[in-house]
Amino acid sequence: MEEISPKQEQQVPQVQRQSFVETLTPLLEDRSPRASGLPEPESTIGHAHSDSVHRGVRGSDSIELKDLESRYSAHMQAHDITPAVSGVSGEAKYPPTSLLRNITTDMASKDIINSLPPPPPYNLSVEELTIGVPPPKPVLPLPIPIPIPEFLRKKAQNSEAPLRHIVRNISAKCDSGEMLAIIGGSGSGKTTVLNAIVGRLANLPIEHGSISYSPLRATQNEKKILSARRMKDKIGFVKQTDTLLAHLTVRETLRYAAALRLPAGISTETREAIVTQTIEELGLRDAADTVVGGTLRKGISGGERRRLSIGCILVTMPSVLVADEPTTGLDATTSYNLLLTLSQLAKRNRTVVLTLHQPRSSAFPLFDRILLLSKGRVVYSGHRQRCFPWFASLNHVPGSDVNPLDWLIDVSTVDTREGREEESRQRVAALIDSWEDGGLDFVNKGDSIDGVDGNTIVPERVMSDSNMNASAVEVAGLLHVENWDLNRIGMLRQTVVLFSRANKNMYRNYGYMLTSAAQSMVLGVALGLAFFRLGETPADIQSLKMLCFQYVPYYTYLVLIFSIYKFCAADLIIFDREREDHLYAVAPWLISELLSNAPIQIISAAVFALIVYFMTNMRTDDLAANLFIFITAIIMEQFATIGFSLLAASINRIYATASLIANATQIFFAMSAGALLIRPPPYIDWVKYISSYYFGFRAVTISQFQNRQFLCENVVGIARNQCEGNQVLTGLRIPIDHNPGYYLAGLFGLGLVEYLISGILLATYHPGGVKHAMQVVSLDRGKEVAIGGDLDISRQRIDVEVKGLTFSWNRRNNRKTILHNVNAKFPAGQVTAILGPSGAGKSTLLQILSSRSMNPGPFARFETEGLVTLNGEARMKKSRSLVAFVEQEDDYHLPALTVRETLRYAAILRLPKSMSRKRKIARAEEVLRMLGLIECADTLVGGELVKGISGGEKRRLSLAVEMINDPSILVVDEPTSGLDSLTANNVMLALKSIAESGRTVIVSIHQPRSDIWHAGIDNVILLAKGGRTAYSGPKAGVEKMCASVGWPIPEMVNPADWILDMVSVDNRGEQENITRERVKHIVNQWEITERKSMEELATMGKPVDATKVIYESDGGTPFYISIPVIIDRMLRNLWRQQPGYSAAAFVLSFTLVELPFEIVGSLLFTVITNIGAGLQTNARIFFQYAFAVWALQSNGESFGMMFGVVTRDMGVNVSLVSAYISILVQLSGIVSASVPNWLSKLAWGTTLKYATRIIVVNEATGLQLNCTQTEIQNGECLIQNGQDLLNLFGFKDLRTGRFCAILLAVTIAYRILAWAFVRAKVASL
């Protein structure tokens, strides 16, 4: 066993982690495992599960409250726990001084954050807060839902049930210098209370109560009560979800956050020092220069993203720091270090409020106050010291071997497992009633006894300049304590910082840059081919006229759709969140976005213009001037289009709605431009002054035709009129003396106006943010009850083994090893847990085990060595059908379905066809109850913009969907993250039960409570950072391993927390080298042990053959079952706003669901454009017109499916579909009369060729025009009848019925092709 020298022992920061047991009883006073070099152990061990709620003193065994308090005080004295003034005068603060022993007297010279002058202190007070569920807003069932008027809505609401509440009568306090922990089960209202504290409740109504902040430093006469809204500049809020720029590194992200959040006067050196300190505090040193990453680029781990989001707030100096689940996704060691950092910040005159799900027991002494919630009601609210005396007065005392925080959550949560629900529901109801009857009086009485009044100004720890480092002295001079103000950077520096940030994020996005360049070249070549080498005949002149207009929608439509997606899906989400924190004004953001995007946009537009100009043989005389006008026109068109995209996204953040607004408006822009309709009707004509089409068309047309004479050889008569450029301009009603510069200036001005209006909307109108969903009334709620627990599903036992697995990322010889020589066994019938700190490769190992594909990013690749076997056989591609994988992300559920509906559809689609529908639904109800989802069963799941169930409930729903059919191998990434401790324990017990039935269960866990370790885990894979194995084998061998490397597990310590601490590197100060050497020693020792084991196995000879793996059919649920189910599911989701079935079932169901909407839309469009526009019509023409519109719409959806399979990124998909459709339009035969013959023949393979032929032939047949002689002379009227039009386009076959039949066949063919794409994608997974 390795000894630690006294010198090393002194270097280890000692952190005494006292548990509740140590607080109540002096039995463990002499236990001191300090020689281990690790933080002192915590009392979280115990084989008690949720049954620990019932342990302790009851009835005659109850102890007197005074005796409990005296034992508490005696224990404090015995452990030298002295009262520490922090936040409230006279308040005895726990934990002991030894807890913060790592804060040394010279910390001011080492710890920059703690040496900075503190912000002004504020006390938080929540008084009787009641928040309701948003009232329903009935809408008309149209494609765009229209709200029912208020006066009609009131009549319908008179009969509705009373308004439900999310939280009710919540009262809490948190003074400056204190940390308040809001805890409770999933769905208890923690996040709602937190959003209320920071003033971000969206559409939730506050029915009663108030939230206020009061400054401590003001005199009694000056003291003001401030609302959360008025405190907006002094509150730092860390949300549950991480919204970060994907292409910045961790260090750069923090640098930009510091530049935007810290006071303007702080020097660059000081700001950099604060960033470095934050990286150290959060353990991000190893990932400091790694990009954050996103959908298409592998970056930092989920835990590192969480810490980075917190770091972006920690670099600032808020008076109130609020964090929603800051430890979710972090390992136990990092979680504790983070909470310790937050506690230290609280002691510096900050008010810290946070929510927690699964805190370890050592965190309990860090909290000054506790707010315990259950289903939106208060169970306890007050100082930590008074918490357990209150429960003891109600005859509820925890056992001697449980985590006090876990016990609090257990005792206040309804356990929905069979046989426990009624008793736990009664217990929780009694606790809530007891608190409302006298809880506050009990807490206030205790506070007064302890001398806590909450009104005394906190004496601040004053540091002399000699104890401050240079950075702290600088900040102290800038921020006068008595007149503290945020004083962030001004608009000019905001613009510089935002431009630098956007510029780096843009030009590291190689995929976007390549896509922009490629689309410009592809679109340019396609348009050039459609108008290839135009000559000087009347037909070519007509094509040139159309080209002068067509370049606008052809190029800018793609820009429009992609820009709206980019704004809605990324840019404005980050903007909205940062604007909520008031980091910058709107103008700097607009300028930075414009400037950072300008170079790539200008280059792309210029490339497109050059290709089109020379391929189409546009005007060559005075080439430089005319080419410059064309390039400038395209650049200005792009500028105005992006401005309009931003305007649409500013009106509505939902991509579908914003794009609908833009597309509808573009129709009027095109009609009023003067090309398609030379004399638009008066109600449309005015639109041209706000249309980029009008300015762009006129600028290029004047450039190409003004004072130009075409040869027109052998052309005589009226057609000769088109051979004079000025005559063409006259025919288009364009004055021949106009200068193209006027219209280019108009384009630029239009773009500026669009940006200006967008800026005003962004500053004053806030459509973004999350709205809250309402509960749905289920007509069949709970009708089906599980018919026993037997699923009648036969599953084979499969042992999984990993041999010598090494997985690395490589880009241009820059190699990063994620997993290194991992050897592990995952036996059937057992639960194997993968443990390790953030960044140890846990999620990567799970993805490899489940055969999931991963994207390394542009110009990079993953390299894999080693083998994965199933029952001794090398894994094959079809083995994926044996594995169910539950990812960390839970955003794939349909947002407008309820929890119960989601599970029932999953059961019907996933369970064997031999099971009856009734038994499948019964299984769904069984899983619903097993995972504690019964309370939210009829609540909408919700999504990005609609708040439905809580994050913890969504996590359980994801797990429930995969648990429905009990797969042979169940792989779960972080099944307990985001869950309260009771639910986490129940989930692990459910997984254990699944494993005992013969399944192989593999999970990764960050913070397992001791109950889970003892009852829910059979085998352990312990990974250190870099994917190196520290242990792999049965759980029983962990203790022996720890002892062999010199770190034996002390008694009364959670082994999971101990081993996570053991293999974690502490990046703070001197601890880094010590802990890094410790981890290296442990890993090396395991490698030696592993080699010996492999040598022993080699001498034993060939192993006995395992059971051969039988691969099940992957055909999915039969058509006759899946089709009606998928249709029903899609309709429900559409009306209210996973593959267990085949690709054919999905495509056919999607087609049948969309068909009614397509038909209605096509008929409405036909009424407006065919009848409303005054075209020739009768019954046959009307329905053929509608049929052609429907075919085009259906064909667009097929393209969407195909390109959606090609790329996972929706923005790229939108770009590809738009570009492809734009190209097809040019080949339709009516946009250009000069399409090369070979391209014209290729166009017969598209739906556009037939659809346009049907519409044009029907309109031209029998058409007679009444043109005046003047209109004929000036070229405004090129044809006199429909036959002239047909001759112009070369249409000879006029059989529209034949074209309709072919169009139907081509439309179906494209849908079949879409199915082939989907099927190929599913087969490749």
Molecular structure report:
- 47% of the residues lie in helices and 11% in strands.
- With 1325 residues, the chain is an alpha/beta fold.
- The strands form six sheets. It has a six-stranded mixed sheet, with helices on both faces. A six-stranded mixed sheet has the order 18-20-21-15-22-23, with helices on both faces.
- Helix 18 packs across helix 19 and helix 19 runs antiparallel to helix 22.
- The longest helix has 43 residues.
- The N terminus is likely disordered.
Write the layout of secondary structure elements.
Layout: H1 6-11, H2 20-24, H3 65-78, H4 112-115, E1 122-132, E2 139-140, E3 146-147, H5 150-157, E4 165-174, E5 179-184, H6 190-197, E6 206-215, E7 235-238, H7 250-261, H8 268-281, H9 302-314, E8 320-323, H10 332-347, E9 351-355, E10 369-374, E11 377-383, H11 387-393, H12 404-411, H13 421-449, H14 470-478, H15 491-507, H16 510-530, H17 538-580, H18 586-615, H19 623-651, H20 655-671, H21 682-685, H22 692-705, H23 725-731, H24 740-764, E12 771-772, E13 800-811, E14 814-826, E15 831-835, H25 842-849, E16 861-870, E17 873-874, E18 883-886, H26 899-910, H27 917-930, E19 946-947, H28 951-963, E20 969-973, H29 981-996, E21 1000-1004, H30 1010-1016, E22 1019-1024, E23 1028-1034, H31 1038-1044, H32 1055-1062, H33 1071-1099, H34 1119-1135, H35 1143-1171, H36 1179-1206, H37 1210-1226, H38 1237-1242, H39 1247-1260, H40 1269-1273, H41 1282-1289, H42 1296-1324
Parallel strand pairs: 5-9, 5-10, 7-8, 8-9, 12-19, 15-21, 15-22, 18-20, 20-21
Antiparallel strand pairs: 1-4, 1-6, 2-3, 10-11, 13-14, 13-16, 16-17, 22-23
Helix pairs in contact: 7-8, 7-9, 7-15, 15-18, 16-18, 16-37, 17-19, 17-20, 17-22, 17-37, 18-19, 19-20, 19-22, 19-24, 22-23, 22-24, 26-27, 26-34, 29-30, 34-35, 35-36, 36-37, 36-39, 36-42, 39-41, 39-42
